[in-house]
């Protein structure tokens, strides 16, 4: 008899070991981890998602004729051994996860256990782990675009019969920067109302982990393959067509805009990424969505998602400690409470508190921009993202946060840091007109804090960035300031640090 031990994000019949599993004799083992220490600092919705997916998958497996040993435990390693002692399996089958920490856990357990262990790579990605060594060679620049074009060809996605990109261009990114008129609304994603299983998980989490962050009130993420397919179908039919145009737009009180909300469903194995890509391609062929939307959406999954995992696999374990810019400040309390006068930060963090989610450009150009320019310690920022986001797993958080958002790896993934003054946020959002600060004021009490933070960042890291070809113009502006402006700039940044310290920013 064999036991297949599945982790919480691997609950899918498409995981490779299912091909060898014998329903009559073998068992599936699922263990809910109720160890408070492991969940410290997490958003409650994350626990609800994981436990509810696991409990629904147990039911799906039993309905399909599998035997499931389902356990709740405060010590996963002990529970695993308890299962082995009770059931005496000949072999324990495991899928190797992408996360370094989980791999270490499996390695340690494997050395101690009496059971024979076989490991296969987990599903859920287009590229195998072993391929990344060639795809991201040691001494080359790691560019997403190059790989994306290659994957388009390899998987024949949005290609003409002659192997050229449909529409003549590989990327329509430049078309995807529109700002909707104020008052524009977008259809809500096809959320799921929590069923009995999810409701009881919510009660248990509220009971057992009452001190964790966030609220379970709005929990509506799919927890089954069927629910995820409903969310996907609805997105394809009603929301994809505006995905391209408004991909970078930010609207107060509109946390989802035209984003798919599929990241958790994909990362937790409810949906297969290639199926999602094919569905978007069909939407283009059926004329349900324009090319800029479809190509933009496909690039996120076929390009960015795969590339990000590749960067993680090629850079760990050193990556988790990177801090090239030497940033040491603490993350301000408003990252958990949303209590700040900066409207863009307030609305973005509120979305995290309510939905364990904010969309990409909020993560990058509001939260990441703030954390980089304010010099927050990278580890604190990546821990916060790992703990607070519904779709977070270490492999996707670290390159996105440390590499893309914070430039903490010294530019492995981007030629310049994603930092800006308040002007970018004003251009892409409707936040500034309802903010306590003024985006039109550079200095003084009312100045938008992103202005002094940005200038201060440039000055602090002048040696590193002055000769960067993409930043030369910005340094020219800095050089042209009068000494009077420099003095006002210094007073304004001091005010920002003071307010951050007092908790009044
Ligand atoms: P959409 O905007 O609809 O995009 C479609 C899909 O593309 C997503 O569902 C996702 O599967 C994929 N995708 C898009 N961009 C990326 C990317 N950069 N990396 C990986 N996949 C991508 N994504 C996560 O899945 N988990 C995270 O914890 C996470 N943390 C992030 C932290 C920061 C600082 C930044 C800048 C990005 C992060 N991302 C993360 C990437 C991206 O922001 C999210 O995938 C996206 O916002 C999820 O929302 P959505 O499903 O509505 O995506
Ligand atoms: Fe954000 Fe500055 Fe605009 Fe306020 S004025 S919303 S702080 S960018």
TrEMBL record:
GO molecular function list: lyase activity
The keyword Chaperone is assigned to this record: no
Amino-acid biosynthesis recorded as keyword: no
Record keywords: Lyase
Record region (Disordered): 170-193
Cross-referenced Gene3D superfamilies: 1.25.40.80, Deoxyribodipyrimidine photolyase-related (1.10.10.1710), DNA Cyclobutane Dipyrimidine Photolyase, subunit A, domain 3 (1.10.579.10), HUPs (3.40.50.620)
TM helices/strands, residue ranges: none
Classification via Pfam families: DPRP
PANTHER family assigned to the protein according to its UniProt record, in alphabetical order: SLR1343 PROTEIN (PTHR38657)
Protein name: Cryptochrome/photolyase family protein
Gene source species: Alkalicoccus urumqiensis
């Amino acid at each position: 008899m064999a036991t297949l031990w599945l982790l919480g994000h691997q609950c899918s019949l498409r995981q490779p070991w299912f091909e060898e599993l014998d329903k009559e004799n073998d068992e599936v083992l699922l263990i809910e981890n109720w160890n408070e220490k492991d969940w410290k600092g997490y958003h409650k919705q994350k626990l609800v998602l994981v436990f509810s997916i696991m409990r629904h998958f147990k039911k799906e497996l039993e309905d399909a004729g599998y035997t499931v040993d389902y356990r709740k435990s405060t010590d996963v390693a002990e529970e695993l051994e308890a299962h082995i002692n009770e059931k005496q399996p000949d072999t324990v089958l495991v899928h190797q996860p992408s996360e370094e920490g989980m791999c270490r856990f499996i390695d340690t357990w494997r050395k101690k256990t009496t059971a024979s262990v076989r490991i296969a790579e987990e599903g859920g990605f287009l590229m195998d782990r072993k391929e990344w060594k060639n795809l991201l060679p040691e001494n080359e620049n790691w560019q997403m675009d190059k790989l994306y074009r290659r994957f388009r060809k390899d998987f024949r996605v949005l290609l003409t019969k002659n192997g050229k990109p449909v529409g003549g261009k590989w990327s329509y990114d430049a078309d995807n920067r529109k700002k909707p008129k104020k008052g524009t609304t977008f259809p809500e994603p096809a959320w799921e109302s929590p069923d009995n299983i999810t409701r009881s998980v919510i009660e248990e989490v509220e009971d057992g982990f009452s001190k964790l962050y966030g609220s379970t009130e709005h929990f509506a993420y799919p927890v089954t393959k069927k629910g995820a397919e409903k969310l996907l179908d609805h997105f394809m039919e009603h929301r994809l067509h505006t995905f391209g145009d408004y991909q970078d737009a930010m609207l107060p009180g509109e946390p989802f805009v035209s984003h798919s909300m599929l990241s958790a469903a994909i990362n937790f194995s409810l949906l297969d990424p290639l199926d999602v890509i094919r569905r978007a391609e069909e939407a283009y062929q059926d004329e349900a969505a324009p090319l800029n939307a479809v190509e933009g959406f496909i690039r996120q999954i076929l390009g960015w998602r795969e590339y990000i995992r590749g960067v993680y696999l090629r850079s760990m374990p050193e990556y988790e400690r990177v801090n090239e810019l030497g940033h040491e400040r603490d993350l301000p309390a408003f990252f958990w409470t949303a209590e700040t006068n900066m409207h863009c930060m307030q609305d973005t963090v509120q979305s995290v508190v309510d939905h364990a989610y904010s969309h990409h450009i909020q993560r990058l150009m509001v939260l990441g921009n703030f954390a980089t320019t304010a010099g927050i310690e990278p580890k604190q920022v990546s821990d916060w993202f790992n703990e607070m986001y519904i779709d977070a797993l270490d492999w996707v958080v670290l390159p996105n946060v440390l590499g893309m958002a914070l430039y903490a790896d010294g530019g492995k993934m981007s030629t310049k840091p994603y930092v800006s003054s308040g002007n970018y946020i004003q251009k892409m959002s409707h936040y500034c007109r309802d903010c306590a600060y003024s985006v039109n004021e550079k200095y003084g009490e009312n100045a938008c804090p992103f202005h002094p933070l940005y200038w201060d960042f440039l000055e602090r890291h002048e040696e590193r960035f002055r000769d960067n070809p993409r930043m030369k113009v910005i340094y020219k502006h800095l050089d042209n300031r009068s000494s009077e402006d420099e003095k006002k700039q210094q007073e304004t940044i001091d005010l920002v640090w003071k307010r951050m310290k007092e908790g009044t920013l």
